[in-house]
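Thread: Newbie trying to understand structure tokens

Hi all, I'm a second-year student working on a class project, and my supervisor (Dr. K.) asked me to get a predicted structure for one chain before our next meeting. I've only ever worked with sequences, so writing a 3D structure as a token string is new to me. If someone could post the tokens and maybe explain what I'm looking at, I'd be very grateful. Here's the chain:
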Amino acid sequence: MSSSKDLDRDVKRSNDDSNIGQYSLDGKPVRCPHCNGAHFKSDEAQLNTAFATLLDLDWTNKSATILICNSCSQIQWFGTRPSRIP
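---
Reply by user tm_fold:
Sure, no problem. This is what the structure looks like when written as tokens:
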């Protein structure tokens, strides 16, 4: 369960324009499948399982990188972290 501190941190991070960039994976630029946008906000998301949640062990679950399209807000999930293009 998230605390209000966690929520405040997440809201501040989501409003941080310095987190917006272009990314590539395996040498290919990442594009939004919905609007073909090329600029994304990057974040981490936990891959929860019902069993770990039942035992209050969510911290043991793996996490994934998510890229949120800056144009249309489509979310893409990645098991391997995409590289930011400088």
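A couple of things are worth pointing out once you decode it. The two ends are 36 Å apart (CA to CA). The first strand starts at residue 20 and ends at 25. Feel free to ask follow-ups in this thread.
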